[in-house]
Amino acid sequence: MNPVITIVGRPNVGKSTLFNRLTRSRDALVADFSGLTRDRHYGKGRIGERAFICVDTGGFEPVAKTGIVAEMAKQTKQAVAESDIIIFLVDGRLGMAPQDRVIADFLRKTGRPIILAVNKTEGMQSGVVTADFHELGLGEPFPISSAHGDGVRGLIDDALDSLGIPEPEPEEQENDPNRPMKIAVVGRPNVGKSTLINKLIGEERVIAFDMPGTTRDAIEVPFERNGKPYILVDTAGLRRRGKVFEAIEKFSVVKTLQAIADCNVVILMLDAQQDISEQDAHIAGFIVEAGRALVVAVNKWDGLDSYVKERARLEIAQKLRFLDFANVHPISAKKGTGLKELFKDVDLAYAAAMAKLPTPKLTRILQDAIEHQQPKRVGMGRPKLRYAHQGGMNPPIVVIHGTSLSGVTDSYKRYLEGRFREVFKLIGTPLRIQMNTAKNPYVDADKGKKGKKK
Question: Which positions in this protein are listed as binding GTP 1 (predicted)?
C-alpha cells in the first residue's frame, strides 16, 4: 500500500509549491499570499520506482477556535492523523516564527515521524539558514527549494527510507496470475457498495445502512466464486469536497484512493435513480489515472420504467464517455439480479489487463493501421512509426518506436489504441500508448560541426 506523506506548515511557506512538484501537477493553487489553500489536496507522487500519496494542507494554526482558520486547522489535524510521515515545512528566508514552535509542539505529540524541511533556501548557505530551526528539536533540518527543486529528491528519499519502504517487487511477481484478484468497489455514498458485497459473499459481512457515510474505512473481504479466490474491498463513499464536513469522513478519501491504486479491478457503482454527478466523473478519473481495469455497475435498476432506463443509459454515455473501454451492467445489489454477468466481465477485464501482446503481432497491427491511415505531417516531414512492443501489464502498455514521434497527435494515438483493442479484444482495461523517438544522428553531427567552427 502506498505510504501517505502530509505537508504541514504555517501559511505561505511553500506547501502547495512542494505538493505540485512532488505530484508533477498544478492541482494546488499557488500565489504569493497566505491562506490560499483551505481544504486538503490529494495527489500521486513517485520517486524512482517508489510511489506515494501526497497530501497538501492549508496554513496551520493549531490553537484557532472559530471561523475558517479553525476549520482549516481541523482538516490539517485529520491529515496528520491519516499520514505515515509528516513533512513540516518552514520558511528559511523569514526565519523562525512563534507559530512554528506551536506547530512543532503539536506534531511532536502526535507520535508521527516528522522531517523538518527548510524551504526557500536557494542561493543561501545551508548551515546558516537552518541554524535557528535546530531549536525546534525535530532533528536535522533539511534545506530545500520547492520552487527550484533543490534537495527535494533527497528529502523524499529520506522520508521513504525512514519508513522502511522496500523497493517494489518485480512486475512479474506483482502481476502473478495465481494471486487472488483484488476487486475494489467504489462510488458515491449510499449507492449500494456494501449491499453488493454482502450479496456476493452471501452474508452480512459489512454494514449496509440507508444513510450516506456508513463505511468509514476500506474493508477487505476474501471469498471464492466458482473455485477462484478473490478479495473484495468495500470502500467509503467519496463525496464532493465541499460536501464533507465531518473530519472522520475526510479520513476515508485517502483510503479509497489507496484501495484503487492497490487493486486489480474496480467496480464503479452508479445509482440509476440519480443523475450522473461531477463526483462520479472524478472517481472514474481516479480509476483511469491509476490504470485499473474497470467494470461499471448501475445499481437500483429494478422498478425503473423504460424512459428512466433509457435516460440513464444516455447520461452515462455522455458524461462518462472516457470510460468507453469498460462494459456497463444494470444490476440490483439488493435482489442479486445481473451479478452473474457483472462478475463474468470482471474476469474478462482482469484477463485483458494481464494480456500478453506479442511483438510481431503488435508491429503487424501497427503497420496495417499506418497503411489504412497515416499520421499527419509535421512541417516538411511525417512521423515514422517503425515497430511496437509491450512495455508492461495492468494496464497494458504499448511502446512504439520510430522517428519524429513527438508530432503524433492525440487523436492518432486514440486511433492506434482502437486498432490494438479491436485485435486483442482488450475490453475493460485502460491501454497506454507510449512513443519512443530514436535520436537523429545527423542532427547530432550538425551540432558537432557548429561547435568546431566556434
Answer: 9-16, 56-60, 119-122
Q: What is the pLDDT of residues 222-273, one digit of tens each?
A: 888 888 888 888 776 544 444 443 433 444 567 777 788 888 999 999 988 8
Q: Residue 183 pairs with which residues in a beta bridge?
A: 232, 265
pLDDT of residue 162: 87
Residue tagged 504569493 (cell numbers): 32
Q: Is 110 annotated as a binding residue?
A: no
13 is in an annotated binding site: yes
What fold, for 359-441?
Answer: GMP Synthetase; Chain A, domain 3 (3.30.300)
Residue 406, marked binder: no
Which CATH number is 4-163 given?
3.40.50.300
- Tell me: is residue 311 an annotated ligand-binding position: no
Q: Which residues contact 421 (CB under 8 A, 6 or more apart)?
A: 325, 427, 431
Domain boundaries, the chain: 4-163, 181-239+248-353, 359-441
Question: What is the mean predicted confidence (pLDDT) over 165-184?
Answer: 63
| 215 assigned binding-site residue | no
Whole-angstrom distance, CA of residue 219 vs CA of residue 361: 41
pTM of the entire predicted model: 0.64
Q: Is 56 annotated as a binding residue?
A: yes
